[in-house]
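hiii so my PI (J.) wants the whole complex modelled not just the main chain, which honestly fair. so below is everything: two entries, each one labled with what it is. i double checked the lines twice but i was tired so who knows lol
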Amino acid sequence: MASTLIRGKYVITSPKADGSDLLTDGAVLEENGFIQDVGAFEQLRQRHPDAKEMGGNQYIVLPGLVNAHHHGNGLSPLHLGVPDGPLEPWIVQRMGSKPVDIYLSAAYAAIKLLQSGTTTVMLNQSAGAAARLDEDSQAMLGGFRDAGLRVCYSLGYRHQNRIVYEDDATFLKRLPAEVSRAVQVILDAGHIPADEYFRFYDRIIPALTEERDRVRVAMSPSNLQWCSDGLLRDIKAYATSNKLPIHMHLLETVYQKEYALRTFGKSAVAHLADLQFLGTDVSIAHAVWLTEADIRMVADSGTQVCHNASSNLKLQSGIAPVQPLLSRGVTVALGTDSMSLNDDDDLFQDMRLVAQLHRNSGLDSTAPTADQVLTMATVNGAKATGFEHEVGRLLPGYRADIVLLRLDRIAQSPIDEVAGPVEALVYLADGRDVDTVMIGGQVVVQDGRVTSLNREEIAARLKENVSQKPTAEEVRKADVIAEVIPYIKEFYREWATYDLQPHYRYNSRA
Amino acid sequence: MASTLIRGKYVITSPKADGSDLLTDGAVLEENGFIQDVGAFEQLRQRHPDAKEMGGNQYIVLPGLVNAHHHGNGLSPLHLGVPDGPLEPWIVQRMGSKPVDIYLSAAYAAIKLLQSGTTTVMLNQSAGAAARLDEDSQAMLGGFRDAGLRVCYSLGYRHQNRIVYEDDATFLKRLPAEVSRAVQVILDAGHIPADEYFRFYDRIIPALTEERDRVRVAMSPSNLQWCSDGLLRDIKAYATSNKLPIHMHLLETVYQKEYALRTFGKSAVAHLADLQFLGTDVSIAHAVWLTEADIRMVADSGTQVCHNASSNLKLQSGIAPVQPLLSRGVTVALGTDSMSLNDDDDLFQDMRLVAQLHRNSGLDSTAPTADQVLTMATVNGAKATGFEHEVGRLLPGYRADIVLLRLDRIAQSPIDEVAGPVEALVYLADGRDVDTVMIGGQVVVQDGRVTSLNREEIAARLKENVSQKPTAEEVRKADVIAEVIPYIKEFYREWATYDLQPHYRYNSRA
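here's the output for the full assembly
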């Protein structure tokens, strides 16, 4: 049996919030896609004389990172001509942007993720048209499969309040008749009956069983305002009976907070608690507008949170109360939402943003430690994606998802002598320092270049794909969308105008 | 006369908040350190047939960036074993960290700045001991001179409230007698009589005149709580009569806000207005805790603000109200404070942080545009550093401080077709994309490598310098400092505990 001994000046074996376990001049032994042995390099070298060797003294070896919220987009909306801006109009503008080949987009996303050290992704695809569910999901999964990434696949579904947070028919009446009719056509084209959603899962669960080493499945009601109570109950029941985790957006913006208050007379979290929807099987993405009471309910129910720091800044959503969540013991994972700080899906850079963004002012305030942030991006992400106790650590029995990071840049400073390697990689490293990535024992990045796919070729094909002249229908659609935007802004004008007491204090008007 | 024609696919000639001026397939002609001509490449090529050529179609050409607040530190405190944390204890902890060779530290800082496209720096050195003022300033200036950077040199000075924001003698009484005596020794060693500060400027103003092309001089009372009213009046008078700008820290933390309220019964800005200290010659760094009334006074007096986004996050200071400042028409420049997002002094990365950090939630909120952010990091920085109308733009008569950025990474996406090059460089580029840097017509970075100094050699010497075993005296000093920290935290326990109304709303407790 071929085996590989991976050596590092530092080997981070088990990220832990209160201080990660690590080895100096350590090694891990990979065999058959799993980690078989971990320890001091010299001892492992003696125990496994036939293993080929990888890495060395100029590397930090760490578990592959987990991006726990991603939509599989290789190009960010910015790349497609939709500038960052507040979510509610932005998400409708996106409906009018040029369609992109799903396979190429997914493959390019996977390449960027691999190249910057991410090995597992919560791949949350937005459902397109009913007739294309299988085709679209195969294209998306195909891009990630060809790249060799590990994924938890979830299909995001919504069936109401799709333009603003009120009934579609009611909102359409606010529009001029001609615009209203055109929007109705767009909505009809994207309509998927709820039973189609469940039938899709009926098909995909067995179909993906043979890829279970690499692929897990989750359900995904997109967000509270986009799903009826009945649908949420049905999804929870289906997920429970099929032992699937549930991943959903929640409280991304202040308007989503307001929607729940207006609709249910209580917070979004309180309403989900009433529906008995919350639980250890549920991860909620964003969670920016959780109140203190919400945080207690999230914590008590064991619900997980996926924090998307860069996306929340870009879309003017706000800053999630990560510190209060951590202090209540909530499991917080990290995601880029296909909207990373540098639009390159580099989770190292987003880890650093998280490490610095939640440094609430004042001497009594705590800041997330480097160990906490690395734990979010590994162990906690593994839990959120259904790979708990399988990835996120470099321990015997875990899958061999391993990143080798060059120490060059870090070593130009004496940080490794005065701070730890975890601090070094959270505060100083980035995706361009990634040298080698292994997933399940397969090398997918070597010398900083993805080997499973040809980046230049995929990029060129993707560029050609999005550079095609829009069709007459695409132009019409974009024009209609542009006409709707002012009505969306008008709709929310009186929403959430009250004063708020922030979790953090960053500045003061008086 | 040797001249150089610098060509770019895009040439950003004049950053402007409401839309920068730029050329497609443009060029600038450098001669004798100045820009002599700007226009379409083909026309310039014809007009200047003898000029040698640089750049080409794979570059964005832009003005060198200006870092308007920097302390000349090549290693961040993190590198020296002082982790990021709230300013008040952190700044005292820094007094106990290992001293670093000033020349090597400055040279390494300058290398990092150059390599990431910064060409002008507000170099704010903290005054050490009275007897070493000349020696220390020569070492600092020497590092930047050898690198070839343009600087505005200012010596930061303080003479009171140096451990906490109360009289040193009063605070010392809070300490155990032995600790108190040891701290007194440390304070005495760093004491510089005010007249020494002015005599230093008497010497340095004429001494630096011959370097005036590259070096400007500013005065720098460190911060309000560290300077008496008399000293502030004297500095203002001296600066006015010598036509020097003034650069000072102000309202970096909530405790500095509180100090002014407790001491003067009014805000720090109102007190400076009473002293007739504010004005177009003054730039204030940080300005995190400006109230709405403060912002009006800053705007009305023409005082400039230097925003240090990454430093303010790292030191848990807060987030400056940049949007209210911009909407009042205040000139805002950018600095890294030797505490950049990635601890590498890459202002591209800090520009991106600024572009994303001030995206206040809500549909009515505005976000800084890429053009606004680039203007802060060029034109506005030029003003703050005393080089207004000399650097920050690529126009005839300006100094030839020019950055050539490779389009490779950016061009992998179609962004240059759907967004502008300014968006591309603010949202996607970073210092590693910098290919060539020219300052005053001299090439100081070529193929991404600094040519004026040897990075590896300086890094190795710096590493050796800080790796030396601390002396017995240094160990004693660090021990004393460690004993003082709990008293500092105790001192501020009752300070600034009231509720605050934030400028921005990012989340909500209720």
